[in-house]
Known about the structure:
The protein is of the alpha+beta class.
Amino acid sequence: MDDAEAQMIARRVREELARRRLSRQALADMARVSISTLEKALSGRRAFTLATVVRLEQALGVPLQKASTPSVDPLASSPDSLGAYSQNAVRWLEGRYLTLRPSFGTPGDIYAYATIIQWDAGQGCLMFSESERLDSSFSQTGKVSLPHLSGHIYLVTNVEGQYRLAVLGRPTIQGALYGILTTLMVGHGSQLIPAAAPFVLLRLKTEAGIAFGRVTPEHSDYARYRAELDLVTADGFAHFPK
């Protein structure tokens, strides 16, 4: 890329770091690049590679390169069916999150993976996508709904009329989201049955030392992850009637 585009990318990265109060080391960890590479690119001593830019975009949840198509007006609203929110109004929700839910297959275990929420200019709304899942073939992507009336955040997957839905409360001061996941799980044989479970998204400032995958009670992070899931009901973010 030319010098002008490299300078634009460096300026955008510095702005995002300042806005989020994020250190360069934390961003390097999130993007899985060396701090030396990031420092040299931001100072102009080394050109950005495409791979580095893509990793930074994924970590920050924002586009850094020039759009190949005309950009969408950031004041334009998402469809009414998603809450009619503007891009500027939902920037605070964009980012990468550690995602926790109970295991549907092994009682007591916890599944941990990553969820990225970012604006999609083509769709004209926030989109979410999952990664770092053990069962990667079941990774979800979908749209984010933020209706004003309920004040909740909805992560909606619709594949040929089959829905998966997460209902989350507004973020805490730490940027954490707590709520419920409703989906289908494998029952007897190949039968699918409805299931609901506590669901937590914790904003990732760094991925150093983060455990993804199936976390068993013997794992060093299990108690911390379990405490986060227990907050869903303990702090009144959701209710499971008996």
